[in-house]
Each structure stands twice: as C-alpha cells, then as structure tokens.
Design brief:
homodimer, Arc Repressor Mutant, subunit A, three-stranded antiparallel beta sheet, 3 strands, DNA-binding
DNA sequence: CAGTATCCGAATTGATACTG
DNA sequence: CAGTATCAATTCGGATACTG
C-alpha cells in the first residue's frame, strides 16, 4: 500500500467511471450494487450460515435471534432472485424447503472474507477512534 | 474453493460466533459493523474518490451528482469519526477544507478491491438472473 | 413447516434555503 | 467556501396474526 497514489483505488472504480461521477451511472456500478445487496441487516449473516451447509427455513429462523419470518423470507427471496441462493422444495408432509448457496453465492464468500479479515484486524482501532470522537 | 465444505465461510465468521447467532452479539460483529458503514448510499463512492487524492468539500460536491451538501457532510463526519477520513481546515478567506483518507482508510481500499473485482466479474450474471426472475 | 398479510414506528435520504 | 437547519418523502424493519 501507499505506493504513492491510487494503485489500490484504481482497481476499485476504474472500470471506466469517469471522474465526475454521474449518479445515474453510479447506481449501475457493480460494486455499489453488490455492496448494497450484501449489507442490509440480515443478508451477510444468512450467506455466512448457508456457506456452512444448507438450511431449512425454520432452521434459519431459529439460528438467528431477532429475525422475523417476514424479513427472513424477504431476504432469501432477494438472494434467490440474484442467483446467490437456491431454494429447493421437498413435497413432503409437512412441506420442507431447503436453501443453499449457488456456486455464484459461494464464490462471493471469498472476497467477503478479505473484507471480514480487514474488519477483524481493524475494528478495535475504529471503535477506539469512535469513542474519542464521541 | 469448494474443498468440500466451509473453508471459505469459516474465515468469515469464525471469530467465535457460536452457531445459534444471538443478534445482540451479531450487532457487535466487526464484519457487519464495517459492512454497514461502508455500504450506505455515498460512503463507498467518497472513499474511492478520496483514495485518488484529497478533495475539498465542494470538489466532492461537484464530483458526485445527486449528492446534497447535507448528505456529504453527514457521510464525511461518520467517516471521520471512524478514523477513515481526515479533515484539514485551511483558515484562508474564504475558508478551504480538505478531506483525505487516513492510512486506516487507505488500507480499506485493498479488501474493498477484492469485492470490487468480484462484483465486476459477476455483475452481469446477477443482472441476468434478476431479469429472469423479474 | 413454511410461509403471507397487515400495520406501524424508525431510520435514511432528498430538497431547499440560509449563514459565518 | 463550507457548511447548517428544516421539512417532507421514502424505505426498512419489527410485531403479530393468519394460512395451505
């Protein structure tokens, strides 16, 4: 890092966003799109759990304290409609539904890990600064 | 990847979060904390721009179409209070204020790039799935 | 079991006008 | 120039009750 200027950031946004960033363009920026998807209240957690093994609906519901069925469904549906999660229905009685990461979803775990490691490494520092500021 | 099970996801959340994830604990999870910070509407964009070179307030304002002074200030203040951005006031007339990434902020560009590359590589696929679902 | 339906409060963002 | 103040609109998320 700090080779002088923008070696790092260049790779962040230089998939031809011109410098004066029109927000219309920016909204279609892949990075923001993905980031905003992944970063709502429950998505990351669900991806992580599904990264371990497939889960049934109520299994997820039980695993995550505070997550209502409404938000669980909503979050899974978005993930599904983005092709990150796969939903399989077993027509048993009572019905059983299994959710698992698609290969695409699984591949996302990798870059997410880089960010996770950064977060783990630097979170204390952030919190410290935050408290000085507070 | 896909060595069998959770090689990837393990590094995501195994800083000792037990499997039944209590949300109280999860809210203090460094990963989510950082993700939620970075992923509001303007933060990533501002970090990216500041990663190129320091900017003055109105320089950022002009650079990002659709960003109101209110949100610009708010976003910068949060970044500052997290120690990712540094604010320097030059007591000229009229006043001039420069924002730049701190070393901590700059170090965040690196993992962000990993995610950015994933996003660039897979965004088309996501969009395609989305449209089939829509 | 696996959801859906409904209602409501909270948080986020935008628009705009004003100030040291 | 670099913000702040105010108000309105939208979106997000929680609680709860109900259904095939």
């Amino acid at each position: 890092m700090s080779t002088g200027d923008t070696g790092v950031s260049a790779s962040l946004h230089d998939h031809r966003l011109p410098m004066p960033v029109p927000v219309g363009e920016y909204d279609r920026c892949p990075v923001t799109d993905v980031l905003r998807r992944v970063s709502d209240k429950w998505t990351l957690l669900l991806i992580t759990l599904l990264g371990r093994h497939p889960h049934r609906f109520n299994e997820l519901h039980r695993a995550v304290e505070g997550l209502s069925p409404r938000m669980l469904t909503r979050t899974l549906r978005v993930l599904e409609s983005d092709g990150l999660v796969e939903r399989e229905v077993f027509p048993t009685l009572p019905p059983s539904v299994e959710y698992r990461l698609t290969p695409l979803g699984a591949s996302l775990l990798e870059p997410l890990s880089a960010l996770a490691e950064w977060a783990v490494a630097h979170h204390a520092e952030i919190v410290a600064v935050r408290q000085r500021t507070a």
